[in-house]
Design brief:
18 strands, Leucine-rich repeat, LRR (right-handed beta-alpha superhelix), two-stranded antiparallel ribbon, alpha/beta, 14% strand, 13 helices, single chain, 2 domains
Length: 420
């Protein structure tokens, strides 16, 4: 008999930089990268420079192991250079660029220029940094130059970066010939106008697999600008638009769903109306639809007809595996068409009903225990006073224990049965 080989998790070297770039770096970053280029394969690098005191050996941490000053100076002997492991991912986060200090940008520019020389970089993240005026932030030009000069860049995360249309235009212009596979632009200040530039990028790019645009100032107009690029893209399999105001985007949704590679669609809290749901339903129940994960939570439903359209999706779609209906105001009056369709559906394995406070937990658990074989279920309660998820009550835990005993293979989110 053949023995099953253990799957080894593929991980890359990662350099995380958290600093204010206000002082000159005492450590030569180029030397730092050179040393680890030929070092034994560390999996994650965390590099703190807040005090820039090399004698304080805790300034530099590698998997919580101290890296000593002499180690930096002497480098790695020649005979060990065959054990090279190259840093492929840089994360720059929690930095303060709002201060009017010219040295901050100067040192940041120095660091980016060093990265340009270091051509092995594949993944770049710049997020949760404090930028007071994004349009005037020169750092975007430096980052854009890094993308332009580095042909190997594949993965870009710029979420939560105060990114504006003007800044993104500079960046996109230098990505047109790159083989980008992951692009995260969530939680920024992007509007409909820059979507025209993004459409050009989508037309020229053939490698992108995941695109995150959620929680920007994008409306149905902006989605219209990029719908053709998404529809015709040969590899895009995930599109996230949650948190944008997309009311009256039904036609665009129908067009997007014609992409036979798009498997994951996140349109949570986008203010869909009845017509939007009708177009969505039309695209979802077509035989060639390949969507396996659909998140339509927190779209305020105003008419019973909207629940009927959702029930059609559940009943007739053949590709869905995971459906998120969080915050859909399901109650004892409107739930019937939804759960009737769930009963008839034989494909969906994972359901989420978080923040539907008028649905009884006991009723949901009894339904799935008696009528459906599923793999995952999320029914986390919501505290309306503090606007946060809350812990299950003692009575709810008892119900969940009973369900878990009957259905031990079903994963229940929000509770660890081994600890209760």
């Amino acid at each position: 008999m053949m023995k099953n080989k253990k799957k080894t998790e593929k991980r890359e070297d990662e350099l995380i930089i958290e600093t204010n770039f206000s002082q000159k770096i005492n450590i030569n970053i180029e030397e730092y990268l050179f040393i680890h280029k030929y070092n034994k394969p560390f999996k994650k690098y965390i590099f703190y420079r807040d005090n820039d005191n090399i004698e304080n050996k805790t300034n530099i941490l590698i998997n919580n192991d101290k890296l000593y000053k002499i180690y930096l100076r002497e480098g790695i002997p020649y005979e060990k250079r065959s054990q090279k492991k190259i840093i492929k991912k840089i994360v720059i986060k929690n930095n303060d660029f709002s201060k009017s200090n010219i040295d901050i940008l100067f040192h940041f520019k120095e660091f980016i220029e060093m990265l340009i020389v270091y051509q092995n970089l594949e993944k770049f993240a710049f997020y949760l940094n404090n930028i007071s005026n994004s349009d005037n932030f020169k750092g975007w030009k430096y980052i854009s130059k890094l993308f332009y000069e580095n042909y190997n860049i594949r993965w870009i995360n710029l979420r939560n970066s105060f990114l504006t249309d003007k800044s993104l235009e500079i960046i996109i212009s230098n990505l047109l010939d790159k083989r980008i596979r992951y692009l995260n632009l969530c939680n920024n200040n992007l509007t409909d106008e820059v979507m025209k530039k993004l459409e050009i990028f989508l037309e020229k790019n053939s490698t992108l697999k995941r695109l995150y645009l959620g929680y920007n100032k994008i409306t149905s107009k902006g989605l219209f600008y990029i719908q053709e690029g998404i529809k015709r893209h040969p590899n895009l399999n995930l599109l996230q638009l949650s948190g944008c105001f997309l009311r009256n985007c039904g036609i665009s949704l129908k067009e997007i769903l014609e992409n036979n590679n798009l498997c994951n669609l996140f349109i949570k809290n986008v203010n869909l109306n009845l017509v939007d749901f009708q177009f969505l339903s039309y695209g979802m129940i077509k035989d060639d639809c390949v969507i396996s994960y659909l998140d339509i939570g927190f779209n305020t439903l105003e008419e019973n007809e909207e629940y009927e359209e959702i029930s059609k999706i559940i009943k007739y779609n053949k590709s869905l595996k995971k459906l998120c209906l969080d915050g859909m105001k399901l109650n004892m009056k409107n739930y019937l068409p939804i759960f009737t369709s769930i009963y008839k559906n034989k494909n969906i394995e994972c359901y989420s009903f978080n923040q539907n406070k008028d649905l009884r937990l006991e009723g949901i658990l009894n339904f799935f225990s008696q009528n459906k074989i599923i793999k995952e279920l999320s029914v986390i309660p919501w505290d309306t006073k503090i606007e946060k998820y809350k812990k299950f009550s003692k009575d709810e835990i008892k119900l969940l224990k009973i369900f878990h005993k009957k259905n031990p293979k079903v994963k229940i989110y929000g509770i660890d049965f081994e600890k209760i």
